[in-house]
């Protein structure tokens, strides 16, 4: 999926759209997406000016957005249909190395469970095949 199609499945916009491309998706199972990290990201102005590091909470958000695309596609729904995926929690989230400008963050999410509109995903973020962060993300499918 290119960015135009991704924007159909995520309500986020600049500067908070954190998925640049979907490189693989198996409906009802898993997704692999990309976030290109550049020095032009607005958060690098303050995190940290002399040592730019992508905040961990934004890595979690990027994983949640990739998981949201997978959930929307699995249900054949879009935000324009009056549906939204809300981030409702994370479990066992661990960070192994910093993400810096120039990195290409690979975002992977796999569906663990989907019950009563609550989805649980096993997620991992990698740079150059090396683990950056991993854990579980919970999202709720809600009507707006």
Q: How would you portray this structure in words?
A:
There is one protein chain. The protein has a single domain (3-143), classed as Thiol Ester Dehydrase, Chain A (Roll), CATH 3.10.129.10. It has two helices and six strands; from the N terminus they run H-E-E-H-E-E-E-E. The two termini are 25 Å apart. Strand 4 (104-115) and strand 5 form a beta hairpin. 19% of the residues lie in helices and 43% in strands. The protein has a six-stranded antiparallel sheet with strand order 1-2-4-5-6-3, with helices on one face. It has helices at residues 3-9, 56-75; strands spanning 21-26, 30-36, 83-95, 104-115, 118-127, 130-143.
Question: SSE layout and pairings?
Answer:
Layout: H1 3-9, E1 21-26, E2 30-36, H2 56-75, E3 83-95, E4 104-115, E5 118-127, E6 130-143
Antiparallel strand pairs: 1-2, 2-4, 3-6, 4-5, 5-6
């Amino acid at each position: 999926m290119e960015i135009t199609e991704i924007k159909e499945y995520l309500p986020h916009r600049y500067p908070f759209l954190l998925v640049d491309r979907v490189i693989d998706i198996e409906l009802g199972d898993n997704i692999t997406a990309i976030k290109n990290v550049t020095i032009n990201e607005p958060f690098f102005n303050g995190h940290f000016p002399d040592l730019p590091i992508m905040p961990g909470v934004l890595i979690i958000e990027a994983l949640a957005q990739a998981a949201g695309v997978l959930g929307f596609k699995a249900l054949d729904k879009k935000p324009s249909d009056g549906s939204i995926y809300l981030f409702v929690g994370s479990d066992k989230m661990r960070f192994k190395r910093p993400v810096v400008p120039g990195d290409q963050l690979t975002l992977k999410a796999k569906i663990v469970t989907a019950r009563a509109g609550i989805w649980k995903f096993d997620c991992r973020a990698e740079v150059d095949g090396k683990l950056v962060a991993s854990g579980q993300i919970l999202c709720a499918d809600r009507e707006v």
